[in-house]
Hints:
By secondary structure, the protein is mainly α. It has helices spanning 2-30, 46-52, 55-88, 94-102, 109-120, 131-155, 159-168, 173-201, 205-211, 218-224, 230-255. α6 runs antiparallel to α9. The longest helix is centred in the first third of the chain and has 34 residues, at 55-88.
Amino acid sequence: MRTNTYHRMVVASLVILLGMPILATLLYSLSQRWGATVLPDGLTFDWYLALLREPRFLVAFGHSLLVSVATLVLATVLIVPAAFVVFYYFPRLDRWMNLLILLQFAVPPVVSSVGLLQLYADGPLPLIGTPWVLVGCYFTIVLPFIYRALASSLQGLNVRDLMDAAHLLGASTPQAFLRVVLPNIRKALMAALFLSFSFLLGEFVFANMLVGGRFETLNVYLYTMRSTSGHFTSAVVMTYFLFTLVVTWIATRLAR
């Protein structure tokens, strides 16, 4: 009994510790004024209404969605066939793939951004300031998450036996992949895509250093608005948080 009580107290303490900053930000975004008193003087939705009427916010939010979705489409087209090829034709390459996808963590984003600025600021591929450079950078970010999710799912399947059975029934290799293997890894793929989407929406370093205001994303917009009203920026943060929360909830439901 004492052990259960202790565990509940630990969980409750963690919930309070993690939830208090979010609750405080929500209250601040809804308050008319919050000065010397413990609680706000009044509640209002004016900051959220002002946010929804702000065209710059809507454009930045659209840019973030566009770059994130484009990255995930590119990642799906490239990583899903690559994972299948590794597990079906070259299973020994999996260990090297695990090493390859982790290399990006050896270089901090700030260092990578400086190198990319040197390479793509001018010359034959002047990508700096365009969304294309963000799509390329974001692809390297989501690569380990998507590949590991697919690898874990494929390891639970006997890919070779499934493919051989499909071949015996007259299916070609692409047909067997699309009709047999892909449905079995669909849940892992969808969960990885939604979680990667939530992560990309919060990315700031690459977006700020490589693109900045030339293709303003949501976090760059939030950074530039830091000197304005705290109520307004709190409304921006809570809008972003609620959107990410919904996406993460969908990912959790799909992963079951």
